[in-house]
Amino acid sequence: MNRRFTEFIMKGLMLLSVATIMMVLLYILYIVASKGLRSLSWEMVTSLPTGGYYLGKEGGIANAIAGSLMMIVAATALSLIISLPTALCINFVMRRNGRLARSSRFMFDVLFGIPSIVYGAFGFLLMMWLGVQASLLGGTIAVALLIMPIMVRAIDEVAVLVPSDLTEAVFSLGATRYEMLKVVVRQLRPGIVSATLLAVGRGIGDAATVLFTAGYTDSIPVTPNDPAATLPLAIFFQLSSPVEEVQNRAYAAALILTAMILVISFGVRALVKYSRK
Amino acid sequence: MKLSRRIKDLTATRLMMLTTMSAFALMIIIGVVLAVKSEQILSGHSLWSLLGSSVWKPMKGEFGFLAFIAGTLAVTALAIVLALPPALMASIWLSEYANSRIRSLFAPVIDLLAGIPPVVYGVWGTLTLVPLISETLAPCFVDFSTGYSLLAGGIVLAIMVIPLMMGLFGELFASIPRDLREASLALGATRWETARRVVVRKALPGIVATVVLAISRAFGETIAVMMVCGNVADMPGSLFNPVYPLPALIANNYGEMMSLPDYESALMLAALILFVIIIAFNVISHAILHRLKQRIA
């Protein structure tokens, strides 16, 4: 009887935990959507801030949306150039599960754990050393540093699953390692795409990396040396404004950012499912 | 033809080795750069006087980190205490009770919680938690609270580390062999007894490692905590008092302190402290997880 009672109580507690976590997610989405929809308008998405924007006058956050998109595209490309060869190297050039491969994996796990504010501060120091001002370029470098370990780990996760039969078959046909990798990359394509999307989702939402490195501006950056506004910072700055309309726009901006990330996240899921078939 | 293939192969593999090794270099460079930058403050003050004092008056040349370190520890501890029980219980339910359909229904919940950007958590916290604390909770215990408090920071952070914990717990429990569970159930244990005495016990080192990893994540979280925790450099007194964690210190003051070299150096020291602590925690956690993986495999 006593044991059954414990079982009953514990099961209740577990269900309560699951329900609570689900409710918290729904509550967050509900608050962001309901607050954001109220001041979301077409104008917000398509127009730049005008003179009195930060006092509640007309305008939008097209500068931040464009800045964020430009930065994430550049940073993802930059990071992919480094992460893809790295992940392949760990799996197919180094001896599989050898000491070197294991310690590399460990290193990327640690790099993954470094907080974004440290990447931001380091990126800023790097920029000062290179003589770069807070700009699209600076933000791109900092974000690329942040998402590089994420991509390596995500590509590595699928690369591990490539059977050694495949690589051996390619080798037995007389291919070099480089030619074998071309075959492997074709095999890994869905995994690479979902790793990229994962990194995009993380990179586009992070504020601490771009806080000192990207600057902020009311116009859309034209060259890499122009400062660039980003969505997370647009939310952050507008929320700290005392003007209520500006605060409301922060909620709308938060809704836009969340919606972008939800789309990316479901994209990853759909892709993973599709590639398993 | 043959030669060009070989050259291609050699350059490609060399380049790949180079990119991999550059990651090792990156790690060391970050550490060295931060250390060099914080040298200036360390040459003027002893490390213990910096860490042991809670007086923060940059204009007068006093840099005491104690309040910030205490603030970081308090927020992190609160977050872990709040997040661990539900994350663990929910993970046990998903792995031991739920069928695979429910598990796959729940997976997007964890993904979405992990995907929501920190700044949005911050917005949510200021919209819901802050007024809740200042208007409803705090009046029951203290005279006055703005709501921007240790409690708000801890709750936001707890929600942010739950998906990290649940992801790792899920993997961990899935790696425990089925036979062990069946043996326990066959001996007449209930499901909960099996979960507690077999699954959780077997996974215990992994659970510890996960918690260590979650601590290191919570330690470095910046924007979300900064938006709700008040940012007042006092020692944390109660749940309803504001706190000022280290990452928030860096984020709030960086860029404005260029005129004071000591100030910049002090902030770099803060970044270095974060860097070192987080690497140490990561190393510990991965060492445990790695050993566990080898033992089970």
What does it look like?
The complex is a heterodimer of chains A (277) and B (297). Chain A is mainly α. Chain A is 77% helix and 0% strand. The longest helix of chain A has 38 residues, at 2-39. The model of chain A has no long low-confidence stretch (mean pLDDT 87). Chain B has a two-stranded antiparallel ribbon with strand order 1-2. Chain B folds into two domains: 2-37; 42-296, MetI-like (MetI-like fold). In chain B, helix 4 (66-97) runs antiparallel to helix 9. The longest helix of chain B is centred in the first third of the chain and has 36 residues, at 2-37. Chains A and B meet through helix 1, helix 3, helix 4, helix 5 and helix 6 of A and helix 1, helix 4, helix 5, helix 6 and helix 7 of B.
Question: How large a portion of the residues of chain B is in β-strands, by DSSP E?
Answer: under 5%
Overall number of strands of chain A:
0
The largest contact between protein chains, plus residue counts on each side, is: A-B, 85 and 81 residues
Mean pLDDT of chain B: 88
Proper CATH architecture of the largest domain in chain A: Orthogonal Bundle
* SSE succession of chain A: HHHHHHHHHHH
What descriptive keywords fit this protein?
heterodimer; A: 277 residues; mainly alpha; MetI-like fold; 2 domains; 11 helices; 77% helix; B: 297 residues; two-stranded antiparallel ribbon; globular
SSE blueprint:
The complex is a heterodimer of chains A (277) and B (297).
Chain A: H1 2-39, H2 42-46, H3 62-93, H4 99-113, H5 116-130, H6 136-159, H7 164-172, H8 177-205, H9 210-213, H10 231-239, H11 244-276
Helix pairs in contact in A: 1-11, 3-6, 3-8, 3-10, 4-6, 5-6, 6-8, 7-8, 8-11, 10-11
Chain B: H1 2-37, H2 39-44, H3 47-52, E1 56-57, E2 62-63, H4 66-97, H5 100-115, H6 118-141, H7 150-174, H8 178-186, H9 191-220, H10 223-228, H11 246-253, H12 261-296
Antiparallel strand pairs in B: 1-2
